[in-house]
């Protein structure tokens, strides 16, 4: 407590189930990126298939994390709305780019390059940012 009776800011962690759901998109999208890199180097079709399955897994589990973030945004107070809103937008952007990437990977393996590789890079970076934001907690300015 400070002299004004206001406690300094604190970090509010994610709910444990939300944290578990958030743990999956980054490694799955990263695996898809690495599979796309392997495909671009070898042109073995199985790498494109691996990427497609990894993207699907990232979308399914990332979708549940996105849904949880939406509910948390709606239920949260006004003090948390801005930071939770940014977190939700990053997760939404990750999911949308991942979905577009899944559509690109649904084409013939040869036709996925280079768009699939670029979308995998963007989806992986967005998953990294979302994970960083989620696991670092959300800072509150002051608490009464």
UniProtKB/TrEMBL annotation:
The chain crosses the membrane at residues 20-41, 53-74, 86-104, 116-135. The keyword Membrane applies. Keywords: Membrane, Transmembrane, Transmembrane helix. Residues 15-134 form the DUF2231 domain. The keyword Membrane applies. This is DUF2231 domain-containing protein. It comes from Falsiroseomonas frigidaquae.
């Amino acid at each position: 407590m400070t002299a004004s009776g206001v406690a300094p800011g604190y970090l509010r962690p994610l709910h444990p189930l939300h944290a578990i759901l958030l743990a999956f998109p980054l490694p799955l999208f990263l695996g898809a990126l690495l599979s796309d890199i392997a495909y671009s180097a070898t042109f073995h079709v199985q790498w494109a298939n691996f990427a497609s399955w990894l993207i699907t897994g990232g979308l399914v589990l990332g979708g549940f994390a996105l849904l949880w973030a939406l509910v948390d945004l709606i239920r949260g107070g006004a003090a948390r709305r801005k930071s939770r809103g940014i977190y939700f937008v990053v997760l939404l952007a990750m999911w949308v780019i991942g979905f577009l990437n899944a559509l690109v990977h649904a084409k013939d393996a040869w036709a996925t390059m280079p768009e699939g590789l670029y979308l995998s890079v963007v989806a992986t970076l967005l998953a990294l940012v979302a994970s960083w934001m989620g696991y670092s907690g959300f800072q509150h300015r002051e608490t009464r």
